[in-house]
Amino acid sequence: MSGRVLVIGSMNMDIVVGVEELPKRGETLMATRQVTYSAGGKGGNQAMAAGMAGADTVMLACVGSDDFGSILRKKLESGNVDCSKIRVKDGIPTGQAFISVDSHGNNCIIVAAGANGEVSREYIEEQDALIKESDIVLMQMEIPFGTVLYAAKRAHELGKTVILNPAPAPDDLPDELLACVDYLTPNETELAKLAGTQGDPEDMAVIEEGADRILSRGVRNLIVTLGAKGILFASPEEKKVYPTVKVDAVDTTGAGDCFNGAFAAALAEGKTVPEAVRFANAAASISVTRKGAQDAMPSREEILKAGL
Ligand code: RIB
């Protein structure tokens, strides 16, 4: 029996083109395949990953009253996510993300927030009963900052586990937010930005320095996603790298989201942190072998079969 995961975040229609290499400044490139439209948004992706990993999952988000909004909602419902509280906003387009994916599976993304900007503090205040009924609150940063801060404070006050995926990363996160977060889950680039480290963000010494800086600000658990290298778990007591399996990546879009959603699902069902990290690593390693974000999320059975 799983506890409940409440995801508060964005829902985007991902508009994806394939390219040989990602463009340089001022460069015009020809796409290597047809444009595709698929369900995304860091919030929606994480909810999908949690739902498919077996958690009782509820999504709080806003979409426009357009076709993209209803397509995204149906997609999440197909992944076992309760979408009954998602708000539909007239006159504002559903969020869209413009994504280029290169021949190595790397991507770059530009998000037009649209209705994601309507995920307001007032909306979350109206869902207080839902926060009370949840065990884990999982958020990212594609919705207004004030909403994230309010929801984190309220969830923490109610004794819930708060997971914050600081993506896209702001220049800094205030201490009053960090104090409410149980697990902070940046990737290497986001960590470097938040911690203000210099040097190659993928260098392990730079990552460890960044981790120390973030921990010194009172963060209880830091999980840095390292792509093909797995994850670094850091707390005041320990630092440990959990490797992941080697796979042939075709598209890394949403891999971090997959990790976050599966990690939340595993914690919600009572797994220990090491178990939850291994479960989430297995899930993310499957997701990169498939194209798209939500389309790539693995089922619980697939994750358990791949188990690390
Ligand atoms: O993390 C991947 C996601 O980032 C994409 O699905 C896109 O919508 C952007 O939000």
Can you describe this structure?
By secondary structure, the chain is an alpha/beta fold. The protein has one domain: Ribokinase (UDP-N-acetylmuramoyl-L-alanine:D-glutamate ligase, 3-Layer(aba) Sandwich). It contains eleven helices and 15 strands. It has helices spanning 42-52, 67-78, 121-126, 128-133, 145-157, 175-178, 188-195, 204-215, 255-268, 273-287, 300-306, and strands spanning 4-8, 12-18, 36-40, 56-60, 62-64, 81-82, 87-89, 95-101, 107-112, 136-139, 161-164, 183-184, 222-225, 231-234, 239-242. The strands form four sheets. It has a six-stranded parallel beta sheet with strand order 6-4-1-10-11-12, with helices on both faces. A four-stranded mixed beta sheet has the order 3-2-8-9. A three-stranded antiparallel beta sheet has the order 13-14-15, with helices on both faces. Bound molecules: alpha-D-ribofuranose. Alpha-D-ribofuranose binds at residues 10, 12, 14, 40-42, 45, 97, 109, 111, 142, 253-254, 257, 293.
